[in-house]
Design brief:
Largest sheet: 7 strands, parallel
Radius of gyration: 21 Å
Oligomer: single chain
CATH class of the largest domain: Alpha Beta
Length: about 350
Amino acid sequence: MTSRERIRETLNHRVPDRVPMVDICFWPETVERWRAEGLPAGISPTEYFGLDEIGVLGFQANLQLPEETLDETDDYVVRRDADGAVVRSWKNNYATPSRLDATIKTWDDWNAHKENFGGNVSVESIGETYRQLRERDCFITIRPCEPMWYFLEHLMGFEMALETLAEQPDFVADVIRTHTEFNHRLMQQLIDAGMEFDGLWFFSDLCYKNGMLYSPKVHRELVLPSHQATRAFCDRHDLPMIFHCDGYMGEMIPLLIAAGFDAMQPIEARCGNDIRKYKKQYGADIVFFGNISTDVMCRTKDEIFEEVSTKVTAAKEGGGYMYHCDHSIPPTVSFENYSFVIDLVRQYGGYES
């Protein structure tokens, strides 16, 4: 099977030749370490280990507000971005930017600017990236920004956004609705331009280590209608849906199933998620994509063996599992240990023909 065929079969809950093997993010420091430990120059980890490639073709709309640099040092730069958010980004390490302030703080602020939302996204530039990915015959996902994540992370920042979520739910609903409608319009334009996608992949960290950032009730009222509308769009175009979310997923899984998502990723082990348990509860309803702990990857071979062999064996039963680490591969993982992980996934992830 090709990687594209293998992933398609798995997302359709059918049994491929082996579980797909995907890791989408290796820290730059990780690759630098691995070069010194045996990874040949000029070849990516995905190529070297023969991983199944998923092409991610993303777009993110904004309000097209004026951008400016507010402060800069040797370590960081503070900028006001096109959504009016003030963001500190680090220059010398692979760390999440900090959001310091926002321009959009009220429904009136949003209404004053929302007519400009999304107009900056270029179908032509997306098309060029699409052609490059299609030449590699990989599984290509379209990745619009997930609407609730846009509100929480990009428009306001978590603290202000979560307060607004509690105090002005109608404002939040309008942002989500506007964003959802834009996503569907642009994806339809891309499809009408001849682009054939293999799936949709939302990246949206709506959970933290102990659970959801807000209640399941709020999700059902504000977010689920958006996700179900996107499911209807994807059904019209035969696109499976994958949902990326860090944190503890116990409360979120039933909501993802209710929305019609086909797979969840990366299923952080350090937050208490365990696919050996989830497979028994939800294996008929959703594909599990990940959960192999990078914390364990830094430990002994015996501990790595236990982590990989038991999880892959349990999760692959009847199809419906794709290998991925439980987040991204940090430089604490040695080249030798990662090689051992991939060897184990190949050994325990095969299916009898």
